[in-house]
Specification:
Blueprint lengths: L1 E4 L1 E3 L4 H9 L5 E3 L10 H4 L2 H8 L3 E4 L16 E4 H10 L5 E5 L1 H4 L23 E5 L4 E5 L6 E7 L3 E6 L39 E7 L4 E4 L4 E6 L3 E8 L3 H24 L1 H23 L2
Parallel strand pairs: 1-11, 2-3
Antiparallel strand pairs: 3-12, 4-5, 6-7, 7-14, 8-13, 9-12, 9-14, 10-11, 10-13
Helix pairs in contact: 3-4, 6-7
């Protein structure tokens, strides 16, 4: 792959952000000093704090295995209490993660801990901030968010290695039809990628960074992302709706693509599992062939 670092800024005005990142749809990391330190959550949110207020809530946990033929979109591998999960993470490496956990539904008082970056974007879904939690070694495999929203992703506790690709890179990373997933594996991508089995990966253009406590990643709608938890930690994603075209694209993904994919998984799981991968290979091969013309 062709890899560059994601831009980092310590501080940025709304005008600079809009001109250099929001309108060009370019990712950027805003340091804690530039954004998240303004929020009480920066110092207040800890494992013990969360365990005390929402430790009894049931959450879905996900392992590092790629989805199998019979796995519906967003199907959890197990359900345990958040407190039990936190205890596991604190004891040592655990390759389990939680995603799309709307902690505010269970503890509305947490809203007071968050300062929304309204100066940078409009259309925030303030009823749907999502917590993403992972133990050291857990992985969020390469995908892009199905609703196509812009994301402000702030890391709390621990470090996370991030790989991003613009959506136009989809053919190079073997995007499977009717999904927001790649057929290729990106686990430990910074050490080695299987470019022998997936030759188009050599031409993909990615961006990377390591998020630390307080770093906020702006990820434009539709960006592919693969995240590996270097330490146990958690992050909050604040979602902002895109323009009208982006909203319609998100609706198409949620209602159309996801609906068809889940239907096919129910009707012909094994055939569909292999067919998606076959089509991903064919599209990647055509893309490579076009490069030589």
């Amino acid at each position: 792959m062709i890899i560059n670092n994601i831009d980092r800024v310590d501080d940025i005005t709304p005008e600079e952000f809009r001109k250099n990142y929001y309108l060009p749809r370019k990712p950027v990391v805003i340091s804690a000093a530039g954004l998240s330190q303004q929020s009480p959550a920066y110092s207040k949110w800890t494992w013990d704090y969360f365990k005390r207020i929402v430790g009894d809530k049931k959450v879905g946990v996900y392992n590092n295995e790629r989805a199998g033929a019979n796995t519906l979109v967003n199907g959890a591998d197990d359900y345990i209490t958040f407190g039990e999960y936190i205890d596991m993470v604190k004891k040592g490496p655990v390759q389990l993660r939680i995603f799309l956990f709307n902690i505010f539904q269970h503890a509305p008082q947490l809203v007071q801990d968050v300062v929304w970056p309204d100066q940078y974007a409009k259309g925030f879904l303030k009823k749907y901030p999502m917590l993403f939690v992972g133990g050291a070694g857990s992985v969020a495999h390469m995908h892009y968010d199905i609703d196509m929203s812009h994301i402000f992703h702030t890391q709390f506790i621990g470090r996370k290695r991030v790989l991003l690709l613009e959506n136009s890179q989809s053919p190079y990373i073997y995007r499977m039809p009717f999904t927001v997933e790649s057929a290729a594996s990106f686990v430990n991508w910074h050490e080695k990628l299987d470019e022998e089995q997936y030759p188009a990966l050599a031409h993909a253009k990615g961006l990377t960074t390591i998020l630390d406590h307080g770093d906020t990643l702006f990820m434009p709608g539709g960006y592919w992302h693969h995240m590996e938890y270097m330490d146990g930690g958690f992050a909050m994603s604040l979602r902002a709706l895109d323009d009208l075209a982006g909203k319609l694209n998100g609706l198409y993904h949620i209602v159309g693509l996801r609906g068809i994919n889940n239907l096919m998984i129910k009707l012909a799981p094994q055939w569909w599992y292999h067919k998606k991968r076959e089509l991903a290979y064919q599209r990647a091969e055509k893309t490579l062939a076009d490069l030589t013309i």
